[in-house]
Amino acid sequence: MSRVEPLRSAVPASTRRHPARAGRGAPDARPKRRSSQRRREAVAGFLFISPWIIGFLVFTAGSMIYSLVISFTNYNLATGSTTPAGFSNYAELFQDPKIAQSLGNTLYYAVLAVPLEVIVALGLAMVLNRAGRGSGFFRTVFYLPKMTPVVATASVFLLLLNGNTGAINQFLGFFGIHGPQWLVDPHWVIPSIVLMTLWGVSGTMVIFLAALNNVPRDLYEVASLDGAGPVRKFFTITVPMISGAIFFNVIVLTIAAFQVFDQAYLLFWRDQTNASPSSSLFYAVYLFQQAFRQFDFGFASAMAWLLFLIVMAITLIQVKLSNRFVYYEGDR
Amino acid sequence: MTARRRLLATASIALVAAGLLAGCSSGSSSSSASFSKDASGSLKAWAFDNADDVGKARLAYAKSHLKGVDISLDQTTFDAQKFTTRVASGNVPDVVQMDAQFVATYAAQGLITPLDKCYSIHDVSPSSTFYPSVRADVTYDGHIWAVPQFYQPPAIILNMRVMDKAGVTPEQINTSKPDELVAAIKKMYVANGGKPSTMGFDPVASGQPGLWILGYGGQIIDSSGKPTLDDPKNVKGLQVLKQIYDAQGGYAADKSFSDTFDTFGKKNQFVTDQVGAQVDNQWYVNVLTPFMKQVQISAVPFYASDGKPFTVSSGSAFVIPAGAKNKDAACAWALDLDSMGAWKAAAAARASTIKATPGAVNTGLFTGSPAADKFVRDTYVKSSGNAGFDKTIDTYYDVVGNGKSIGTSPAGQQIQTELQNALQSTLLGSKSPSAALKDAQSAAMTAYRQAVKNSTPSK
How far apart are CA B224 and CA A253, in angstroms? Predict the structure, then answer.
């Protein structure tokens, strides 16, 4: 590129319209009018988004600040009182072996689940993107699992994943594979939860589908004329063109993976009279136990903040890495 | 943004945060454990299930004794998260029904009120009203914290059809003689392609860990509430369970198999001969009565290592939250629901229901009170015409007085979870029983220390 033209928005409006006046400070009534109009527009804008801002401040930011405060205290639920605890709750994070165990389980789940979710969702989106007639029907069908309550899904998966009679092992049996004891063998507990997660991948699929629809068809036509095959076109056109969507999904799915709770809780921890394999103890499940079984809200809050810092660090790394891999049309 | 605006924004956020903090910190007020006999006003009860004839009769009885009290029921089941939210907002019900095993944890946190004075002011003696093990389940730190109800002792239901076919006698299903028991299990066990189709004996290890540990002389929680999972006497129970599962395909295969049982349905494990014997709580006999013609059952008690019949206590209990507004009515209502009069009314209602239902059998009520149990058994439990069912009902009545409490601790639930972990590791063969119990003890002690940290001294 020989010349880079600055974005218009980066240049002050007054300078753009009257370059000669820039820096002179010449009196002009129009900028003032524009300024007051812009302020009115800004106020209107803030008013429109104020329900969200209030909701965010009260239910998210407020709760976060409060949890930060009680993470430095021992909170007594009975009296609603707190006693200062300094950093003892944070120190306890390093002394409780369950923290490392549950974080390890969660990390393993995230490493398995996120790439698989992206691959499966993208695969489904590509299939749907090629569907001609009846694509609306198939989109609805593919999206149905997302609409199914997790409790119902968990009940079905308890049957599907049964090591002796479950449909998954029956299916594997056709190929001569002796399926594992998914829900009992500690080595297969997390993969079984990942399988259940993949059932609800259609939300991610819809985002990919929208991204795929936005890829210009002429790029594929030109590539075909150049003799590119489907694999080449996928890696040189599709993936770069939807890299923004991939990046978004990876970020969102990673955050969700670190907060995984429902699947493990419903499959293993809901029934307290049943044995729950320690490999299904995810960080969010242990946090829940600390808060609502042990009533140790100070420690649970410290756990929440540790998770927040971990997720934030991972997200920042992902954002940093994205500069190398993500293509934004407007940037180039 | 100018410095002034930044200051303003910061001040606004701080103000909002302060408001939130102030709002959130307005918890329940501290409780008083004094009670008066004069019950009046409105009473809000939560989690009492009055869906069946027994519940309705008890409720009607209690209502008739509390004429000046307006009682409203929230029949949704107890939920710890909901309870916590209600406590934090200062909007607690006056009386709550919860699992008896939770009581000590809630007591240690000061979330519920000690009921010693509630009992005394109504001239009810817990020691003469309840089985010792039932009373022990709701006693913590020298105080009684709940009004217990429904004690469901576990025993072993035998499937005589499977046993007869394998040539096994009820005497061989004797948990005090593990080697004989394992030999009998092997005779009854049937597998197809390595997968069980009949378990000789389902010990329900994950549902009844207390029975197996205490039955072999072990201890889970000591008198001060500390976990004692690494007690050397606890090893025996785990060893016997491992032997039992290994004799019939291993824990993983057996667990997956038992998870498929149609426990409450027409094709339950006794109808379809999927078990030769199984540890069950007393209520399961009620599930089997409609299938009397399709099953051939009997029962034996669980025998402790000393050869004596043994069981563990369980059940639910009424507690009064620390912030309850009408403790006097709550106390009177809970005691009325659990009184001899209420159980008599309930037993009469059950008898009427059974009379009106062809083929129904009165298996009795297991109330938590020896006097009430005796009354119900003597008055209403008659021969069903099926010797096996009669023997089963008698077995549960005979063993109910031999119960032992698992113990109470501020970290009771976490200790049970750690015991389950030890159990699983042992049964799957990933750890030896002693190593698994040692690890479980370490984790349970961490949970105990965390629980004690926030505990509130009893009032």
Answer: 46
